Amino acid sequence: MKVIFMGTPEFAVPALKKLHQDGHDIVLTITRPDRPQGRGRQVSATPVKKTAMALNLPLSQPESIRTVEFIDLIEVLQPDVMVVVAFGKILPKRLLSIPPLGCINIHASLLPKYRGPAPIQWAIINAEKQTGVTTMFMDEGLDTGDILLTEKTDILPEDTADSLHDRLAEMGAALVGKTLRGLLAGRVQAVPQNSGEASYAPLLTKSDGRIDWTRPAHALDAFIRGMSPWPGAFTFRAGKRLKIFRAEPVRTDAREAPGTVLQGFSGELRVMTGSGALSILEIQGASGKRLPIREFLQGNSIPPGSCFSAAC
After folding, report:
1. Residue range 265-288: mean pLDDT, rounded
2. Total-model pTM
3. 8 Å CB contact between 72 and 60
4. Can you list the domains of the chain with their CATH numbers?
């Protein structure tokens, strides 16, 4: 088929590669304009742009997808279908109506659950047992279109948002290939979403990563994994930020206030929570690198009774 692909981040890259591998005629790849990235604010190409250039695919980086000039360009190209993966913009109605087979989106959840920009993180934070990917026809709403196909995966106890992201990106690529084959063969039928079962996964900000020690240890374990690698779970001690990358719930008979550092073995850091304790496994200080807790404690003393919360 003649395909126009729209996407921006790493999550979209496997799908673009899959469409190319399957032999579709990718007549245009559309991605967001280059922007300053990281602490150095260096202008960087998007992952999709880098991939399109490596595959010698036609490329466009419009400032707006709502201009008459841009929509006219899409009409001239006459795509059979548009595939949209994490592009970051809602498409206007006129653009959605151009391809005869529609605009197909890959979303990293089992819709209608976790509509919105951060479905991977929130599925882990909320301690879901399963998640997956969904292909759907796009409409003018936010992840509200009719469902085509879904693929499920278990959320593993050690999964972070990073590891689950990579797994779902590959699953989404395979599913969009299967979806296009099914549409061509007439084997795939769209099913409307049940909006009564819908939930929303809002965008995360840096401040969302602050740990609330009054929550149970098992919930904080899920929270830390869901916040990794960004925005990162963090707490404060004596006004200095500590970023926590890995932890595990442990049983305790202690009765200290949530956020209190408990007595533990040498090289161990246990913190009281609202229910049970959390053993910190990897941590980063305000001016250091990510370290296993034993190495961190060799240069940073955190004695029992220290406090990570205003409640203690």
Report:
1. 95
2. 0.95
3. no
4. 2-197 (3.40.50.170), 206-299 (3.10.25.10)
